């Protein structure tokens, strides 16, 4: 009995973005035989070398993880409260006023 499979991702892959940069760095990886065969099979199915396949998968995983960690997800109520807090004028207390009067002890590295 055939199994129907529908992917939400495009089957086409353009390796252009991975091929345009000069590659002078290495990443070494040790895997067991089963994992290696699995990666080789998946790379063949994607019409890629194992290196290109692993780079594509690892880059996508890195992009996903970094985007997740660098994005704040708020409910509509929390977003409204956050925006209101950002737009509210700062209250200057004695400690803040004193700190603003002291000479800066750092410099910007712009």
Detailed description of the structure:
The chain has 110 residues and is mainly alpha-helical. It contains five helices and no strands. Helix 2 (33-45) packs across helix 3. The radius of gyration is 25 Å and the shape is elongated. The model is unreliable at 1-8 (pLDDT under 50). Keywords: Toxin-antitoxin system.
Can you tag this structure with a few keywords?
52% helix; TacA_1-like; 110 residues; 5 helices; toxin-antitoxin system; mainly alpha; DUF1778 domain-containing protein; 0% strand; elongated; Ribbon_hlx_hlx; disordered N terminus
User: What general outline do the C-alpha atoms trace?
Assistant: elongated
Could you tell me the mean pLDDT? Answer: 84
Residues in helix, %: 40-55%
Biggest β-sheet strands, sense, barrel = none
How many runs of DSSP E, i.e. beta strands?
0
* Sheet/helix structural class: mainly alpha
Strand content: under 5%
Number of H/I helices: 5
Radius of gyration over C-alpha positions, nearest whole angstrom: 25 Å
SSE string, helices as H and strands as E? HHHHH
End-to-end distance: 64 Å
Uncertain runs: 1-8
Organism: Mycobacterium lacus
Family: Belongs to the TacA antitoxin family.
GO biological process, one term: regulation of DNA-templated transcription
Keywords: Toxin-antitoxin system
Write the layout of secondary structure elements.
Layout: H1 16-19, H2 33-45, H3 50-69, H4 76-87, H5 94-101
GO biological process, one term: regulation of DNA-templated transcription
Pfam family, one: TacA1
Keywords: Toxin-antitoxin system
């Amino acid at each position: 009995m055939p199994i129907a499979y529908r992917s939400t991702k495009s089957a086409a892959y353009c390796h252009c973005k991975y091929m345009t940069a000069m590659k002078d760095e290495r990443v070494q990886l040790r895997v067991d035989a089963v994992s290696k065969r699995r990666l080789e099979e998946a790379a063949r199915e994607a019409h890629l070398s194992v290196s290109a396949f692993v780079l594509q998968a690892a880059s996508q995983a890195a992009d996903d993880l970094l985007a997740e960690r660098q994005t704040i997800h708020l409910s509509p109520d929390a977003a409204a409260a956050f925006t209101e807090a950002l737009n509210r004028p700062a209250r200057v207390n004695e400690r803040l006023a004193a700190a603003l009067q002291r000479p800066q002890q750092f410099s910007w590295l712009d």
